[in-house]
Amino acid sequence: MSLFSRAPLLGVVIPAWGVEDYLDDCIRSLLAQTHRRWEAVIVDDGSTDRTGEIADEWAHRDSRITVVHSVNGGLGAARNLGTVQVRGDYLAFLDSDDVLPPTAYADLVAALQDSGSDFATGSIVRWEGDDLVEPPWMRRLHRPLRGARVEDRPEILGDVFAWNKVFRRSFWDSAGLTWPEGVRYEDQPTTTRAFLAGRFDVLPETTYHWRIREGSITQTRASSVQDLADRWETKRQSLASVRAYGSAEVEEVFVDRVLAGDLWRYFLLVPGAPEEWWRLLRAGVLELWGQRSLVHSGLPPVHRLAGWLVEEDRRAEITALMEWVATLDGPAPRVQDVATGDWRLWVPPSVLDETTVAPEALALRDHEVTH
């Protein structure tokens, strides 16, 4: 680039609903970006608190910020509305209760300028109390890559977030990308389609500070029937895209490691869940893993066993298993078979009669055995 060429314009879409306590911090982090050439649209998604007023105040203060006030349509609809409104060579999505580190957009845009890729993704940290912690699985996924295709690292499909990425706007439009509307967990189907359609850069740098709020979607979600129905729907959409892509290797990694990744949250809820919820949990597990079984998945051993019990419709035993696991200080105990030398989970007979369980549902993998 010549000395006089202008930095590329980045369009930032900020959906906002009920975030009067967080929006100021979010916008301040945008103003603090070392990449200065951006325009942002805040989509006030029918907020009933002061969110809309705070957004308007920021728009008065900085001409790069505009506000759209809409009726409440949910996160996907707000993002889609903002995408239509915002200009730019590049496109980013920023959730209004989160915060950007100062070099986030500079790092992502610089990678794309250098590589010519369709989008770039960085790692994230999340607040745990007062500390910012990088999830170990994000660090593993974000070993550096440039100009990659999904075959180069199929597990990257587990990086489902909308907001740690910058997209080339021409790619976003030509690939026909939008966010699903009227359903929660809207990030995964769209990020899956992006990874399947484009070339991408993977950065080890942290490009996002994620706040998991008490009472937010992420917190209140898992125990309701509608929530679980939404989760199955977005998993179904994502799997359909992967199957249409046509790579057996990518599909196997996706089904075992990505699609199964958050099921442990739902297994923990089996004790005390209504019967309708249990039936929906089992139906989804059989639909998505019935051909292959969760015993082959990337879940931790005790949750592979839980998945097998769901498949077998053994609700009383998964309930007992989850209640027992909740009392443990560390991983579930392991024992070695004297005859074969193989290691497996050990579960007390009062919780589960192991003689009624398929051996593969109790088996441990080499890396799970601690001698």
What does this structure look like?
Mean pLDDT is 94; it is low at 216-221. The protein is 40% helix and 17% strand. The protein contains 15 helices and eleven strands. With 371 residues, the chain is of the alpha/beta class. The strands form two sheets. Strands 1, 2, 3, 4, 5, 6, 7, 8 and 9 form a nine-stranded mixed sheet that branches. Strands 10-11 form a two-stranded antiparallel sheet. It has two domains: 10-219, Spore Coat Polysaccharide Biosynthesis Protein SpsA, Chain A (Alpha-Beta Complex), CATH 3.90.550.10; 260-368, no CATH class.
CATH topology of the largest domain: Spore Coat Polysaccharide Biosynthesis Protein SpsA, Chain A
Q: From the helix content, strand content and strand pairing, which structural class follows?
A: alpha/beta
CATH architecture descriptor text of the largest domain: Alpha-Beta Complex
Q: Termini separation (Å)?
A: 56 Å
Overall form: globular
Query: Using DSSP, what is the number of strands?
Result: 11
The number of helical elements comes to 15
Short description:
The protein is 40% helix and 17% strand.
SSE topology:
Layout: E1 10-16, H1 23-31, E2 38-45, H2 51-61, E3 65-70, H3 75-85, E4 90-93, H4 104-115, E5 119-128, E6 131-133, H5 136-141, E7 145-148, E8 165-168, H6 169-174, H7 187-197, E9 200-210, H8 217-220, H9 225-245, H10 248-259, H11 263-267, H12 275-289, H13 301-311, H14 315-325, E10 334-336, E11 343-345, H15 359-362
Parallel strand pairs: 1-2, 1-4, 2-3, 5-9
Antiparallel strand pairs: 4-8, 5-6, 5-8, 7-9, 10-11
Helix pairs in contact: 7-9, 9-10, 9-12, 13-14
